[in-house]
Amino acid sequence: MSVLVVGISHKTAPVALLERLALDADGARKLALDAAASEHVSEAAVIATCNRLEIYADVDRFHGSVEEVSRLIVDRADEPTESLVPHLYVHYDDGAVSHLFHVAAGLDSMVVGEGQILGQAREALRAGQELGTLGPALNLLFQQALRVGKRTHAETDIDGAAPSLVTAALDHATGVRGGVAGAHVVVVGAGAMASLATATVSRLGAASITVVNRSSEKADRLAREYAARSLPLESLSGALAEADVLITCTGASGLLVTKATVEAARGGRDEPLEIIDLALPHDVDPAVTELPNVRLTDLAMLADQLRDVPAAKDVAGVREIVAQEISAFLSARRQSQVTPTVVALRSMATGVVDTEMARLDARLADLDPGIRAEVLQTLRRVADKLLHQPTVRVKELANETGAVSYAAALAELFSLDPDAVEAVTRAGVERGEGER
Prior knowledge:
The chain is an alpha/beta fold. About 55% of the residues lie in helices and about 15% in strands. Helix 7 crosses helix 15 and helix 15 packs antiparallel against helix 16.
């Protein structure tokens, strides 16, 4: 089996297209189930964020599986296949491992180095485990990717060098980055992005923070953490009447903030209102910019701006760590794929020794037990010495790139029973060894 990734992101598609593919948590879980039910897929996980949608699958072949998995994304886009496919990317086997490690480290994010993707990858892992769509291959891959992401943040200053999407949006919004201190801020939503927004404006010294959300329980919890007030969604208009900055990040299916809502709430106020829409699909009607002194920053604007931002100073260090981790993971995986063949070969050698000793026992029934033990030990040493170099070399050669399968060649040369090799593989999976 091999890992396949089919995805679409801010690097390959415009925000307007990503918006049509946006999934909430339930949608991402359904997509994982659909992927796992595909003919050539044995395991599946989905990473769904505001700027990417990726399906990870453990598959038995490339052709066939890539078509199945791609179709799952195409069908959700309400877009002709020929116009969507050019925006998709595909990574397979070693390339899939490399891609996920880069994603987890924040190197593929809209804001390079941001750490929020770690939580999103962790959610994909947790959802797959709960749904039963993950098995040993993807479980191990995602666990390792999370470890790589944590390591890059622990061993470099990428956290300080790279802003979050929220701070990037505040930088982009005219007059806001320096003016959040003393401003009245309204945050709509109570999920991960809303929590990050609330924490950011609190740290920057906002005079007041109001959290507005459909679920009053979630809004209350977030508001208490940052000494803010919470309001139900029905009170958004009243909150807007006092706001200097509005940040929305709900991912609701329809518009929450219309031009009419803003116009009525402001009641002719002349003070500037900065609106930052970080939701996908977007929460705010773009027509709000037709109102005087109202400015809007959304993901499409950020995507254009961040393409021109130089990489953070510690990106080179992060890339080096990721390269090391990819090399170590792939080496361990290739060696683990050789192990069942090596174990089966040694089992075959043990069987030959046992057969020959049984023949000797039949011919020399009166053989002294001490001599018999010495003969048995000698036969075993001979078998071990004959097999030592081939097994060492096959593990070394497994780390070399190329199309040759040395494990398969070894099995062919010694006529190993395929069922015996498969039995060793299954035993390793059941013990949770997988690809180490």
